[in-house]
Amino acid sequence: MSVVVTAPDGRAIWDDLTGQSEAVALLAAASSPRATARDAAGTALAHSWLITGPPGSGRSNLAYAFATALLSDGTPEGDAATARQVAARSHPDLGVLATERVIIAIDEVRALVTSSQYSPSVGRYRVMVVEDADRMTERTSNLLLKALEEPPERTIWILCAPSEADLIPTIRSRVRSVRLRIPSVEDVAALIQRRDGVDRATATRAAREAQSHIGMAHRLATDAEARERRSRTLELALGIRTVGDAVRAAGALLELAGQDAKAFTVQRDADERERALRSLGVQEGGSIPPQLRSQIRQLEEDQKRRATRSLRDGIDRILVDLMSLHRDVLLHQLGADLPAVNEAIAPRIAEAAAAGSAAASLAVLDAVAVARRRIDGNVSPALALEAMLVSLTRTRTAGRS
């Protein structure tokens, strides 16, 4: 039987991992003291784990729940204290690499690998978590591979990525994989209702429009501005008729993505700068001594990189919303008996379906997918978005002719 580990608010640490019962059961069993005893003989607890799943499925949440269970001493008091430390990323035996950059820097991985060689100071293990392991270059991945090949006896690595294919084959061969699935709309709605205190209808709509992405469902359920930005995205897409419309819509959508990114980063950047200055002994509004300016410049560079990633993520969310819109249009055209993502604008979807063809809708979905791949390949988001929307107008014109 696994240890029941409690989160800082008293809940079991696995409670928020909705729809992932098989993965939870596996990791809860692997982290129990009894499993640990067996693994001294070399059976169940692997030294390296890879948690994969689509965005919003709870990869990092599961990784930190697993880390909490591994670091816990098994008593209720110890479990709660450990959970608080892991939540704050301050546990002495926890190493974390969570980047806001587009690419994980090799120096960050090198520092984590060095830290992984230390013996645990208070827990049963030393646990190293790498979020977004798919953001490593091949050179950086090979550096991590050396640590995975010969880990210290009491070090556990937990990597997170969208899929196994996102990592180099030699790393895949060194890890035990745990695959997460997309949770159901009902499961996500129940979680949002319980955790965020919203009514069932609001939670269900948010879960459906977020397509079961837990983090996005939370935002849509609790942030009126996020809901407004999404509605504006769909309105802009439905209003495109000409190339001029497409160009104007591309600019407006980029502005929406920027607003979305800004909502994430502005206050966080200001708080981060204030903490950094305070830790360096600089008073608010005071001048920064020359010998400390390099550290502040490094922070500002990190924040710029984070802003770039946040903007790209915002654009990708817009493209996902556009795919959901045209998927609904296609289902209507085909007469498919499947639930729509955007039920709230069903009449507009019916109008769009009547104005085009299924072949045109398929072509639009392909164009959106191409835009996502281009942006992921470092094509300018503005160019990729504008090209996609212009091709959309041509596709619609061809579909009507």
From TrEMBL:
So which domain of life are we looking at?
A: Bacteria
Q: Which SUPFAM superfamilies match?
A: P-loop containing nucleoside triphosphate hydrolases
Q: Which GO terms describe its biological process?
A: DNA-templated DNA replication
State a single Pfam family of this protein.
DNA_pol3_delta2
The name this protein carries in UniProt is: DNA polymerase III subunit delta
Give the source species: Clavibacter tessellarius
